[in-house]
């Protein structure tokens, strides 16, 4: 190329010296440059493309990445969770970062002995499953102050307190009884 003081080989060699971290688990900053029904395309300034699949865009179930605030031009921190075998592009996640933040928030709320709202999403023979801060937690029937069967309160929001927050064991145990007692004491 005329007027250029280096060759294409020299340019490629220089780029390789400054290869960006692209290992799984690495956090990277990126800018969304396109969205589609199944995810978003992200510029992470590496030599390959990066893609944020819909299921990795949020802790919550979404129909489109825009529901998570993902639009072209948005700058965000992502974590690399995989590599696309077809084009060697990076697969990104916001969900993993949100997951860590949700556990941190639950630990903080437990330390503050805070009452939180949880949505009952399922029931089984031992209790109910509630969603709090995007995480699923278990509320044993012994910790429910209502006598209603679990199936009758699905989709209801109830006040809850944290009994156990153990990220390593993926255990989140909650109490409706303690939350109600705390509210009545105030």
From TrEMBL:
Keyword Lyase recorded: no
S1 motif domain span: 25-95, 113-177
Keyword match Cytoplasm: no
Domain of life: Eukaryota
PANTHER family according to UniProt: 30S RIBOSOMAL PROTEIN S1 (PTHR10724), SMALL RIBOSOMAL SUBUNIT PROTEIN BS1C (PTHR10724:SF7)
The family this protein is said to belong to: Belongs to the bacterial ribosomal protein bS1 family.
Name recorded for this polypeptide: S1 motif domain-containing protein
Organism of origin: Medicago truncatula (Barrel medic)
Source organism phylogeny: Eukaryota, Viridiplantae, Streptophyta, Embryophyta, Tracheophyta
């Amino acid at each position: 190329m005329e007027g250029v003081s280096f060759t294409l080989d020299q340019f490629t060699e220089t780029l390789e010296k400054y290869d960006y971290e692209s290992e799984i688990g690495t956090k990277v900053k990126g800018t969304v440059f396109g969205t589609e029904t199944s995810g978003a395309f992200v510029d992470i300034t590496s030599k390959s493309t990066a893609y944020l699949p819909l299921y990795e865009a949020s802790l919550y179930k979404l129909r489109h990445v825009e529901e998570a605030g993902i639009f072209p031009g948005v700058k965000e921190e992502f974590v690399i969770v995989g590599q696309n075998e077809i084009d060697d592009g990076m697969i990104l996640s916001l969900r993993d970062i949100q997951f860590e933040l949700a556990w941190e928030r639950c630990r903080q709320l437990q330390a503050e002995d805070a009452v939180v709202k949880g949505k009952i999403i399922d029931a089984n023979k031992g209790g109910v499953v509630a969603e709090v801060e995007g995480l699923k937690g278990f509320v044993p029937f012994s910790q429910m102050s209502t006598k209603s069967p679990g199936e009758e309160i699905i989709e209801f929001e109830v006040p809850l307190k944290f009994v156990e927050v153990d990220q390593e064991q993926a255990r989140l145990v909650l109490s409706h009884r303690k939350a109600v007692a705390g509210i009545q004491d105030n």
